[in-house]
């Protein structure tokens, strides 16, 4: 599937330039002194090709659960091109045609929410929500109700503000000191339960633990609770039953705004438009990025209720009354133009339904690996957002050494299948294989992915 443009490029020059000048994300560069970094050249559907022309089945949607509708979508490219020629940019203090049209389309999938603030990364969208919470504290509560709760194992982005709300100690290490006013609450991974309870009892206990933190901090100091609907990079953790209803109840009881970080789950990943919709949650803020335009253009959104929005237009004579924030590239029109087309594809091709069906199938097939490999301690997930936790022993649940997890990933890569693993998240616990194939995945694709993992586990551990 390599086309002429690729052949005409001198790929050796590309790789040499990359090695000489590009600082890759989340990467140790020492090995690149003796080996070439991987350069991804082209993609189509579920597949990508590297600099050697080698084909890979991408089971992680661009590495970080992003390319939800798959590669090579000409209809998105055309919509972006047409929009760029008409108007590429104007600051978000003004409106734009795709911005207005996408907001309407998006909100039609989010009953109860009514305002979209555009920006261009998941981190930035979360920062917007944090700033709104802080400003509401000042406007309504004399600055006191400013604390933001976050959960162990959750990740909300890369900025110092977002790392301050970061529940992954390895991501945070060496980047402090962090911003004050962020407080952690316990994780809700039943496989590594902190209480001797199961199912709904565990879920309620994990939520009750949030209430304990609120009471210890003082409810009048806590402005918001920020949670991923299903924790992503912290180990792919769907909430236990009973968790979300209790979380919602606690937020209402103490007048705490609920901020759901849908940067990974948003726009289809779990089989509903948003992850929170799996659990009947009614959030005050929803932030999203990655899958919103499947990576065809940078776009992120901080979506709020009208009640939140109303707090920022109470007194037109007060120069500090409104949300004094700007995101330069939040005014790029390519993002909402791509996002509109992305949603149209999901609807036209019934990709939510496919995600649910293929997710169930994949969970089942991954579950089958537990019968074949003792090292698979737990498989879990929702929709096409799945993880398999590797342990040395099912009784002790000790995580396998990270080198072995990496060996499984590398073995799959050698077989032409790209899978992921939790990466620099929790010290000693980078032991979960992660899967997030595009929502277009077929049974055949899933079989290939799981068969590759099966083979890799056999070679690395048996
Ligand atoms: C749950 C979650 N929130 C926020 C972010 C940050 O998004 P971005 O990298 O676009 O800033 C990420 C990135 O992986 C994420 O997984």
What does this structure look like?
The protein has 462 residues and is an alpha/beta fold. The chain has two domains: 4-69 and 350-461, Alpha-Beta Complex (Aspartate Aminotransferase, domain 1), CATH 3.90.1150; 75-348, Type I PLP-dependent aspartate aminotransferase-like (Major domain) (Aspartate Aminotransferase, domain 2), CATH 3.40.640. It is built from 15 helices and 15 strands. The protein has helices spanning 4-8, 11-21, 61-65, 74-86, 97-107, 122-141, 160-164, 169-172, 199-217, 243-253, 306-310, 334-348, 351-372, 402-414, 443-461, and strands at 40-44, 47-50, 55-58, 115-119, 147-151, 182-185, 222-227, 257-261, 285-288, 300-304, 376-381, 386-390, 417-418, 420-421, 432-435. The chain has a seven-stranded mixed sheet, with helices on both faces. The chain has a four-stranded mixed sheet with strand order 1-2-3-13. Strand 1 (40-44) and strand 2 (47-50) form a beta hairpin. Helix 4 packs antiparallel against helix 12 (334-348) and helix 9 (199-217) runs parallel beside helix 10. The mean pLDDT is 96. Bound molecules: pyridoxal-5'-phosphate. Pyridoxal-5'-phosphate binds at residues 64, 121-123, 126, 155-158, 228, 232-233, 261, 263-264, 289.
- What do we call the CATH homologous superfamily of the largest domain? Type I PLP-dependent aspartate aminotransferase-like (Major domain)
The mean pLDDT is: 96
CA(first)-CA(last) distance:
36 Å
The largest sheet, given as strand count, sense and whether it forms a barrel, is:
7 strands, mixed
What pattern of helices and strands is seen along the backbone?
Answer: HHEEEHHHEHEHHEHEHEEEHHHEEHEEEH
- Please compute the radius of gyration using only Cα atoms: 22 Å
Q: Ligands in the structure? A: pyridoxal-5'-phosphate
Number of strands: 15
Spatial order of strands in the largest sheet: 4-10-9-8-7-5-6
Number of helices: 15
User: From the structure provided, what is the oligomeric state, counting identical versus distinct chains?
Assistant: single chain
Low-confidence stretches: none
CATH architecture of the largest domain: 3-Layer(aba) Sandwich
Number of domains: 2
- Give the percentage of residues in beta strands: 5-15%
